[in-house]
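During the reporting period the student researcher (J.K.) took over the structure-prediction task from the postdoctoral fellow and processed the backlog of single-chain submissions. One of the processed entries is reproduced below for the supervisory committee.
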Amino acid sequence: MISENAKYWLRLSKALGFCNKKIKALYEMYSDISVFFEGGENEWRFCGIFSDRDLDHLKNIGRETSDSIISRCEELGYSIISIDDSLYPQCLREISDPPAVIYVWGNLPDVDNLDSVGIVGTRTASNYGLKNSYSFGYALSRYGIVVISGGALGVDCASHRGALAANGVTICVRGCGINYPYLMDNAAMREAITNKGAVISEYPPDTPPMPYQFPERNRIIAALSDGLLIIESGKKSGSLITAGYALQMGRQLFALLGNNSPENEGSNGMIKNGSAKPITDIMDIVVALRNSEVEFDPEEDIPLDELEKIPVKHHRKKAHKAKPSKQKEKKQPEHTEQEMLAKKPVHREVSGLSQDAEKVYRYLSADPVNTDKISQDTCLPISRVLTALTQLEIYDLVVSKGGRRFSLK
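J.K. obtained the following structure tokens:
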């Protein structure tokens, strides 16, 4: 399906650029955008919103541009929904810089009348981040909530895959053209999404990804979502850009509580400053959205068989060659067993610790242990382990070794 007025809005988006507030001004000014184009340059000037540069661009973007894009979409089986079409989401139309058109592969859900949650986070997600992204995507779908994300590696695709595993509806908002071969690890996932949900973009089908397009894309994720969940976000993460949009739009903001590692500085910071509500399980979100009883049991076992197959972006570290030493390395004196024991951290008697913190404290030793193993060995949920570790760090009893590993201090 291609909107009747798509050809006009296509030309406008090509002339003015994407993420442009003048699109909304024109939508509010003209009940039929064809009147604007048929009026020619005199009509364009009469609007009073265009610069001379805008007018030059409008004159240079001919009908052949829109015809070419429409033909390409028909070839690929994509829909084009323009801002004045009845299928265009009202929640997206209400933001200050709505897209002139949305390119759609699949079936765009009626997000105006369905509960929806955006899930965003780091591309370099830990196992904890992947597990929670997948589990939240799965459980939200079982409640009939549309899951929205950006299709990136890590948190994004884990949440999409969780929704698919639950046979749920999910929307993938791309920061490039729908057809562009970017992140091919997720190509099969994107195709699966179109069976019940949609892959969408404001960029023409074959548009390559550019750095500035991803922050632009994030406003669409926020706009389509009733609430936004952040999972594992650093201080400079793009997830925080999405969170900023969500706050501006009056959306509910949630963040999964993480440990004090740099990977969680952004999301934990939003919890600390009161911007985001801390989340420990699915009911925190469902109650916030619906404030009513539900039938599905959140304790149902969620299949995690595919977790290890979820693609994650990895940091590449440059190998540094060690400089040869000109002096012979001095042989270190061997320590006696008594000296080694004297240097080994010991458990102290500390008052004021919670029961969970006491349990985790007694479990830890001088050897760093990953939070997932702590959770497994102590039989405590990961959220309670992280809370306990936070208390132990405040008491200066443990130290983070990086990579979500902790040991006694």
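The committee noted the following: Residues 127-142 form the longest helix (16 residues).
J.K. will present the remaining backlog at the next meeting.
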